[in-house]
Design goal:
The chain has one domain: Up-down Bundle (Ferritin), CATH 1.20.1260. Helices cover 73% and strands 4% of the residues. The protein contains five helices and two strands, in the order βααβααα. It has a two-stranded antiparallel ribbon. Helix 2 runs antiparallel to helix 5 and helix 4 packs antiparallel against helix 5. It is elongated.
């Protein structure tokens, strides 16, 4: 497994959110159902917001903890490609919800692994904070999907 500094991992997570936003936009362009398009449009904005939030968080921290070196525990998650071609145009809200939950689970696993392998309390707190943020976003996604599906 490759090594990198904590700030590189946060940068990779930001890039992951950018790619997820673009992925959801491609799915929205392909999708046929209005509820599915509505959920995908929400996910595009949601991922763009998380990208910005990570950037703001990184600016706020300005800590030596971000310079700590790590072995990437969940590299396959942050680096995984998004393949729009494997999804049909007739997706349901439930299908999109599954996709979103898989993406969230990937980030949760990454942040959890980073928190567990932290070399200092300060590093652990950074990744635990990101883990908590991602878990909250997962719950928010579930609520929004349910609301859209019940429309």
């Amino acid at each position: 497994m490759p090594y990198g500094q904590a700030k590189e991992i946060v940068n990779a997570a930001q890039e992951f959110h950018r790619r997820a936003s673009a992925f959801y936009q491609q799915l929205a362009n392909k999708a046929e159902g209005s509820k599915v398009k509505m959920l995908l449009d929400y996910l595009v904005r949601h991922e763009a917001h998380l990208d910005r939030a990570l950037g703001d968080y990184k600016d706020e921290i300005k800590s030596k903890a971000l310079d700590a070196w790590y072995q990437y525990a969940q590299e396959q998650c942050l680096m995984q490609p998004f393949d729009v071609s494997q999804y049909p145009a007739e997706m349901t809200v439930e299908d999109v919800m599954k996709i979103g939950l898989e993406i969230d689970a990937c980030l949760v696993a990454s942040y959890k692994g980073m928190a567990e392998t932290a070399t200092s309390q300060e590093c652990r707190e950074i990744f635990e904070s990101l883990l908590l943020m991602e878990k909250q976003q997962k719950h928010k996604l579930a609520r929004v999907a349910l609301e859209i599906d019940e429309m």
